[in-house]
Amino acid sequence: PMGDRRMEMEGSATTAAVTNTSLDGASNITNITFYPYYQHSLYVAASYILGYFFIFLLCMVGNILVCLIVLANRRMRTVTNLFILNLAISDLLVGIFCIPTTLVDLLITGWPFSNTVCKLSGLVQGMSVSASVFTLVAIAVERFRCIVYPLQPKPTVLVAKAAIMLIWVLAVVIMCPTAVALTMEEVPFHYMVYNDDFNHTFPLYTCYENFANPQMRKVYTAVLFALIYLVPLTVITLMYGSIGGKLCSSVVANIEPKQANARVQVVGRRAGQPMISQKKIKVIKMLILVALLFMLSWLPLWTLMMMADYAGFDRDQLDLLTSYIFPFAHWLAFSNSSVNPIIYGYYNENFRRGFQAVCKSRPFCCVIQNYPNKGIVCCIMVPRKKPLSLSDVACVMWLLF
Questions:
Q1: CA dist 22 to 19, 25, 30, Å?
Q2: Residue 46's pLDDT is what?
Q3: What pLDDT is attached to residue 24?
Q4: How far apart are CA 37 and CA 35, in angstroms?
């Protein structure tokens, strides 16, 4: 999968030699390797579960609120906010498909799911991450056009929707080789032992990229690193660097005396350099912070994946990476999907008002209906306007999880 592109088995292995004697007296010695079913101790596993559950909760709640705020308010459906909506959707996909599967894969030795989940999880993970990166590039380009070339026609909502469709098409095309190459296979002579009971063992399966040429995996890793990280980072840096230069020239223009303010603005507009409002500057700061945090959050994981393919680590080093360093790198990368709504609420007044409106009002009332015969507890959302209570929060969390 996108965040875990390795075949090596984790955990402390125990190797046993089994001798098979045939009828003619020939003996064959087979080495059977046993792994613990759970990779980590209870305390380490509990820390992983708490850490991943925390970012999963923030990711789901925050990005769902962002989607609701943009979709419920027509005035919020600007070009920039449509890209932010697309970013929130891709972050939701990261939270739904990346965080749970990665956590279970970290806790249990081998691949615990089916072959279909192996392919789909890798495809969806890669698509969501690619869509997030390309959306950040689209936001940077859109802001660049509006700030550096303000007299040119601004992108319309229709153009933004077409760009979003193109983003997802590119994400699917780039990750198609992953879906084709990913496969689940049983590792011969490798078994998992449950609770140190060698009478209670399971066959060991792995989900990995099975390219016809083993070197293709290294090439594909380098291509993904270039297309999903290096090139977008370069484009975003150039776009925001040009915007920064424009903002600096705008600040210099603002130093002019107030008496000549009107004349300077008129001359500036005629020269193609209108004054930039403080509100736009604040939005630019917000978007730069979103892009910067994305790049910093994913840098450790990309570095580890490149090192795992090209550095040639030995078995002990791989065990250390996959058991402790990879989980933290995954957590840091996925946490980026949960921090974006916090940034929007801090920098953007419209999003902040939307968050406050959701918290102060009671748009949904939770009505619990119990069906004991079927063992179903149904939570129905009924519109009402009252302060949000603890039962409402519990109801919403029940619906989400």
A1: 10, 5, 13
A2: 92
A3: 53
A4: 6
N-terminal to C-terminal alpha carbon distance within the chain:
24
List CB contacts of 4: < 8 A, sequence separation 6 or more.
102, 105, 326, 330
Counting as low any pLDDT under 50, the low residues of the chain are 1, 3-11, 17-19, 23, 257-259, 262-264, 266-273, 362-401
Pairing verdict, β 27-36 and 14-21? antiparallel
Closest-CA residue to 130 (of 231, 228, 219):
228
Q: How far apart are CA 126 and CA 180, in angstroms?
A: 13
User: What is the spatial distance between Cα 59 and Cα 364, in angstroms, rounded to a whole number?
Assistant: 21
**What is the per-residue pLDDT for 252?**
59
In this structure, the number of other CB atoms found within 10 A of the CB of residue 391 comes to 11
User: Which of these, 193, 129, 97, lies nearest to 336 by C-alpha position?
Assistant: 129
Secondary structure (3-state) at 237? helix
In order of 80, 93, 125, 185, the CA distances from 98 in angstroms are 26, 7, 6, 21
Among 297, 383, 289, 365, smallest CA distance to 333 is for: 297
pLDDT of residue 164: 95
Domains of the chain: 41-184+213-360 (1.20.1070.10), 362-401 (no CATH)
CA atoms of 5 and 178, how far apart (whole Å): 10
- Residue whose tokens read 């009402």: 384
CA–CA dist 241, 383 (Å, integer): 47
